[in-house]
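Changelog-adjacent note: as of this version, every example in the card shows the full chain rather than a window. The one below runs 279 residues end to end.
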Amino acid sequence: MTIENISVNKSFGGWHKQYTHQSESLNCAMRFAIYLPPQASNGQKVPVLYWLSGLTCTDENFMQKAGVQALAAELGIAIVAPDTSPRGEGVADDAGYDLGQGAGFYVNATQAPWSRHYQMYDYVVSELPKLVESMFPVSDKRSIAGHSMGGHGALVIAMRNSDAYQSVSAFSPISNPVNCPWGKKALTAYLGRDTNAWADYDASLLMRKATSFVPALVDQGEADNFLVEQLKPEMLQAAAKVSGYPLTLNMHEGYDHSYYFIASFIEQHMRFHAAHLSD
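Full-length structure tokens:
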């Protein structure tokens, strides 16, 4: 597999790098970022935290705004941040910010024109980890996290692949996409109008019927302007009570949907993942 390094920056004794490669899952060129902590330069294979970003984001938002590198360096964890969707000429798009390029929703699309490129679930679950584990000094121990649309993706992917992830966390996730405007728009476009197909990509529905568990941590700001209409964390909490899912949901007064919120609590998330990745 051929990958091209397009940027390198030293950070807290480790290295932040961006790469492009031709994705088989997505039928286009994709970019991802990886932070390799100093331990990875000393012959040690380190575990990986995959980070999935939200609507309109790329691989750069989390790496530049969250302040995660110092923690990753201390804890010896690599961070991998893929782009949020396929991109490029010939890739289907939409005029709205919440559909198309920048809004892949981490699903495998079944509907035209999206199905040719929008296979983000397969990309994150299979293709990207295989590439990362073959090309970098990392182990096969993985955790996954994300924000908003990416929080939805992280929770769904962890619950559908409980044997592949040690832990999962999310900031402000879209917790019940079958019942919110963002989710209904995206799932109708990508999966069609059969709502039975949507259930495989709804964290609250998956958590309600879960029988195998990946420890989950969710943080949500109470001043988030998307809280009531789009995010619905109460549905996630209710689902966890039904199945006994090991979910910790923290609500935070005054915090919004921004990276100021993520930066405020990223340390707790990194230490949560480090504890499970060291098991």
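Structural remarks: Residues 187 and 198 are 6 Å apart (CA to CA).
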